[in-house]
Amino acid sequence: MAKYIKWIFLFTMLxxxxxxxxxxxxxxxxxLKEIYSYPPTxxxxxxxxxxxxxxLQKQDMSTYLKNTLFVACVATVITxxxxxMGGYGLAKGTFIGKIALNRLVVMTLFVTAQVxxxxxxxIIRRLGLINNLWGLILPAVYTPTGMFTAIQYxxxxxxxxxxxxxxxxxxxWAIFWKIVFPLSKPLIAALAIFSFTWRWNDFILxxxxxxRRKLYTLQLALAVIQGEYGGVxxxxxxxxxxxxxxPTLIIFLVFQKFFMRGITAGGLKY
Amino acid sequence: MNKVVSSRFIxxxxxLIFLSIFVLLPIFSVFVMSFSNWDLLSPPRFVGWSNxxxxxxxxxxxxxxxxxxxLLILTVPMTFFISLAxxxxxxxxxxxxxxxxxxxxxxxxxxxxxGTTMWKWLLSYDLGLLNHVLKSVxxxxxxxxxxxxxxxxxxxxxxxxxxxxxxxxxxxxxLQSIPEELHExxxxxxxxxxxxxxxxxxxxxxxTNLLVLTTDIAHVFxxxxxxxxxxxxxxxxSTMVTPLYIYNTAFTQWRIGYAYAMSIVFLLISxxxxxxxxxxxxx
Lengths: 270, 283
Description:
heterodimer, A: mainly alpha, B: 2 strands
């Protein structure tokens, strides 16, 4: 019984969530005439890859792809490291000002990029990171959502694990690398997936940091190209967004392997 | 003891360095500049509290705060329960759940501008797929983006659609941190699925619930790109949320100092709401 309810629920949700996704992928295979026709067609009547050809050939896509990959990968590695470490410190440490720091992290969740855009630009320029891909990486590696996720996850790791290691004479570094880090696999996976998504889709930071075409990221290139040519045709935009999701999807599928049921199983017995 | 204390603090230092340079320093500068009149071109002029005084009489500012709160009420419970239900269905490591997770995460993966433009098209009055479906089953088409209430609901739907993937992954991460033994113990005691969820799993998700709620509230309050593309704040001021109003003040009217003062006040309102959530959950 419960099983049927579960699948009915999943299928209903799937229809709602995937409808726009399906429709945008299907429309990316439509010709220009069909895409503006009414009533809208559910299946492409004359499937064509014209939109994909335009999206991939017209511009220097491989350079943009390389830039975005570099930024997303490097930023993800740093983000995972500093957030897992910071989350551990803020969840399991005892030091003066810990509560205040935890609150501070919550507060940073509410800071809109638009609000700090002007001062952030000034700081990035002072650091000499304008027109430098590191200018897209370093300002973005502290992510409030990632940090908060790490803290909340670390709180769930039983203190007994850490204490028994301490009794066995392990140093703080050993406890972190040999116990906390392996226990954090689902967290690391989630942070990697999130961070890659964020950097891959980021638009504001590239917009203020980069103005040399050679350093454009995919999102920035799409926006700028749209402006330059007075609007790229719809099927090209949809093709572009379909293609640009593939790397994120790959990262998702790769890191999903780190999820595992019962990661702390057995640990509570001693 | 003291040694443990100091060495665990060390783990937070790398994060704190980035936090200070790229978040706190800019906020500090926003705070300082909120006491000035500044148009980015001429040098800022110190004006004391006058930006803040003006703000309290700005009815469109308070209207925008109210719009943000309405969105919160429309979206947060919906996203919370949908993503929790999805996570409970999908947290076990089976092939089907792995595929379904990727599908439900997909909307969140879509770049905000592309995803929203898609929705705008689906919702359009005469060309949209949604009204086409409504008409074909005999309903009147709805001018989704032209009526204040419908536009607000459309944005709430868009937020729910776009956020579920992120929140579901947070719940899955949380569910996976719960030791399996606790479930087995409950099963031995004869608990059914429902009881197991309400009495064992849900209370153990305390930290995750807090994470999801706070993240979702923050995202609704911060949302900019989605609303900017979908309605631009309209019709009238009906979907003009505060970040959008601040953005317009700063970058179309070039009243940077005033926009900063609004940001500071809005930040304080957001914290107040976040603190209420934290207090309730920490009890």
